[in-house]
Design a protein that fits this description.
alpha/beta, 15% strand, 207 residues, 6-stranded mixed sheet, 7 helices, Ribosomal Protein L4, Chain: A
């Protein structure tokens, strides 16, 4: 049975929480990390790169010189790809890089990532982590007192004090449980989950 300690802001143990084994003690399938992270990063690509071919490049309507008799190679337009300022051959055009990935694979990878952090001892549960005021310095002091420099913090919903206090700290990211994903779990060293968010995560990943 997966059991995790629950801490407060002073990193004092205030209780224990029993976690679902099929989510936090699942087999770690590292090949799924590659598949899901590649899928996530492909979805994030803008795909807005664009070049002009010879027909789209401005100008080039007039034939530079006559076809025969000049001793030079025949040319139909100054916008030929061989010329400076001409069109681009096989250049990029706007496209969508996303592709479908089965939901079962995505869920299995997320369970593996959560289980990995649990087995490493880098999954921490807190009853609350919100500073009393919206202030970055206060949040940094809280993290220093906890001895954590790099972490993904998962909340159960909107948490203005925490979200706005942490948004300028580059090594910390605050994420609502609805957006929990494999890439962010693997990117940050520690995974901090607020106690109310556990129930929502288990509901999302139930068998």
């Amino acid at each position: 049975m997966a059991i995790c300690e629950v801490y407060n802001l002073a990193k004092e143990k205030v209780g224990k929480l029993e976690l679902k084994d099929h989510i936090f003690q699942a087999p770690i399938k590292r090949h799924l990390f590659y598949e899901v992270v590649k899928w996530q990063l492909a979805k994030r690509r803008q795909g807005t790169a664009s070049t002009k071919n010879r027909s789209a490049a401005r100008g080039g309507g007039r034939k530079p010189w006559r076809q025969k008799g000049t001793g030079r190679a025949r040319v139909g337009t100054i916008r030929s790809p061989l010329w400076r300022g001409g069109g681009v051959v096989f250049g990029p055009h706007p496209r969508n890089y996303s592709y479908p990935l089965p939901k079962k694979i995505r869920r299995a990878a997320l369970r593996s990532a959560l289980s990995l952090r649990y087995q490493e001892g880098k999954l921490l549960l807190f009853d609350d982590l919100s500073p009393a005021e919206i202030k970055t310095k206060t949040f940094i002091n809280i993290m220093e007192n906890l001895g954590i420099k790099n972490a993904l913090i998962v909340t159960d919903g909107e948490n203005p004090n925490l979200e706005r206090s942490a948004r300028n700290v580059p090594s910390v990211k605050v994420l609502r449980c609805d957006g929990l994903n494999v890439f962010d779990i693997l990117k940050y060293e520690h995974l901090i989950i607020l106690k109310p968010a556990i129930e929502k995560i288990e509901e999302r990943l139930k068998a």
